[in-house]
Amino acid sequence: MKKITALLLCIAVLFLNGCQYIPHGIVEDIAEPEKNDSGVSLPDFEPYTVSALDDFDDFVYEKYNMKRIDTLVELFAAADSADRLIELYNYSVSEIKHIYTLLTYSNIMTYCNMSDSYWSDRYEIDTVNATDAYDSLCEAIATVCDGEYGEELAESMEYYDSIYLPSYEPLSERAKELMKQESELLTEYYTASAEQYSVNYAGKDWTLNDLYYDNTLSNSEYYDLYYKIMRKSNAVLSVIYMKLVGVRNELATEMGYDNYHDYCYENTYGRGYDSEDIEKYREYIKEYIVPVIEEINGSGQFSYSPDFFYDDFDELLEICRQELAVYMPEIVDIVDYIDEHNLYNDNYSANGYVGSFACSLPDYDSAYIYSLGYNATVDYTNICHEIGHYSNFVLAPYNDSLTVVFDLDISETQSTSLENIMVNGLYDIIGNYDAKQGIRYQLYNSLYVICSACAVDEFECYAYNNPEADTDTLNAEYARIQKSYGVDDWLEGCAWSDIPHIYSTPFYYISYAVAGLASQSVAKIYVNDNQRGCELYLDILKTTVYDGSYEDFCDEYNLWYITDEQDVSDAADYFSRRIGELTGAKAA
Predict the structure, then answer these.
(1) Is the pLDDT of residue 503 over 60?
(2) Alpha-carbon torsion (147, 153, 159, 160), positive or negative
(3) SS3 405
(4) d(C-alpha 550, C-alpha 556), whole Å
(5) pTM given for the model
(6) How far apart are alpha carbons 163 and 157 in whole angstroms?
(7) Chain centroid to CA 373
(8) 8 A C-beta contact, residue 63 and residue 30
(9) How do beta strands 199-201 and 366-370 pair?
């Protein structure tokens, strides 16, 4: 069995499209605690406990004292009964939950203002602390599992802990050093990506933010400036990426894998398929899906997200709530909870990450939504997507366990299915004509995401197999790959460096293509039978640590699956037919 490493699963950062700034809460800026080197055990160790989080603005961030982990390790070694070991195991779970909650907070704050060195530094430190704490506690537990009371301890553990912890292998010092280097490079990336790269035109320095909110430029001027700015950031970010590739490849070797791709698949996302399955899926996409998107692109029937005006996030959340009351009343209480406890952002920062995600707060069995709007219908579907993630956290919470097996593809299928259902609520919100355009855009965007996610995955495979590649080589390869998937490449191959997943969550992106297929089969059922579609979705939403593979999951709910050629072909036919219905002509 491969070793289970510090996977940072609880943070579950699930990116999509859009956001910026949240309140900083309360920061206890205490001195960085020293590690315990006294060798003295503290039998009266007090486990970390939390009170209810009434308002996220009141969150108290305190630097974690790693002395607590040293103490727990000593107490495991000194324990003289099964009851004591079980007590210490439960303490360990609560400590890890707290460490990951702090890591989640510093991660959120890093994305809120990516030029704020305080939070990027804290995120780097919290990441190292989480890795060290997880490794130390798992090693301590594995050691006592071999002892006199090990069997009783294993019987008391949560299911996955009882399987993995007794055989846990600690990280080597070299692996820890490589993980630290990875964290440092990610901090460098966050800082560099927050830079306001600019080009001068007509006597003015233009940044991407300037372009987003300007309505005076012609289309040709806009695209020319956008391309030039992207090339400047690409030249910087690509160098950081290849350093990450080198560190991660060495880490994979250190952990006993032939390549980083296999290491990442097995240790990070809980996937039930392998790289050969994905290669087969990518070929099916090229054969069946790409012709559909190419036909649409060549037809002149352009897709767009209609205007969607609202005053602030509170109003957008209320719009979602009203539509959920029609389609999914079971989730309304969850949205009310998000609203009542300020578990979302509603402010803008020019230095924030442009994207949206949901992330869990393990201490509170809760989560947080981060998003920025564009005043278009995509704002509505993006928030529905994140509500899907949040609802899964609530309706199917993870067990109190150190080694949760987190299935990313199930998670993305749950969230993407909700946006594909809820997009039909646009008929109630913006009227028949605009609703059709919004739904058509959602369908086209799903096609685009499936194709572009396959392109990103193929590109990542190339990068990790060619660690000596330079910027021009990477850009040329990305442009070639994009073209093979029918994806428009007006940025001439440099757009990959603007995708944060490629840096922070390698080989994550393919899950959008996997979930994009399965979630459309949920949408197909919903369009034909609203009630049946909603009932199916709620069943799917309550699935979390699944006893089986993602293929089993798709089989149980009769969802389109990636290695079934007929499923991919049927999906292509469905996309073509539905888009044709919404435009008055068959798309392909």
Answers:
(1) yes
(2) negative
(3) coil
(4) 10
(5) 0.85
(6) 9
(7) 18
(8) yes
(9) unpaired
